Amino acid sequence: MDAYFYNQEIDITREALLGNGKVDFKLYRNKNEGEKILIEIKRASSSYLKKGYEKQLADYMLSTNYKNAFYLIACFTDS
């Protein structure tokens, strides 16, 4: 995955410290505002699931001035 992003001139940072916590992934390309993205991932069973999408991701976006973000919810089953 790193090679793909490198070839596309996209910088990807895992567990980026943003002042009020760590976002799972921070991506940007050429410092272009339209090409900056935050990605936060939570398990569906997480006790912080609701807080994550109501407050945490919005706080990350405000602290970084990023306008684009994704909140991914991972669901796992026993089968």
Would you kindly provide a written description of the structure presented here, covering whatever features stand out?
The structure is a single chain. By secondary structure, the chain is an alpha+beta fold. The chain has one domain (2-74). It is built from two helices and four strands. Strands 1-2-3-4 form a four-stranded mixed sheet. It comes from Oxobacter pfennigii. This is Endonuclease NucS.
Summarize the structure.
This protein has 2 helices and 4 strands, in the order αβββαβ. It is an alpha+beta fold and 79 residues long.
SSE blueprint:
Blueprint (H helix, E strand, L loop, with lengths): L1 H6 L3 E7 L4 E7 L7 E8 L5 H16 L3 E7 L5
Parallel strand pairs: 3-4
Antiparallel strand pairs: 1-2, 2-3
Q: Can you tell me the overall shape?
A: globular
**Sheet with the most strands, sense and barrel status:** 4 strands, mixed
* Low-confidence runs of at least 5 consecutive residues: none
Secondary-structure class: alpha+beta
Please report the distance between the alpha carbons of the first and last residues.
Answer: 28 Å
What is the number of helical segments per DSSP (H or I, 4+ residues)? 2
**What is the helix/strand order?**
HEEEHE
The share of residues in extended strands comes to 35-45%
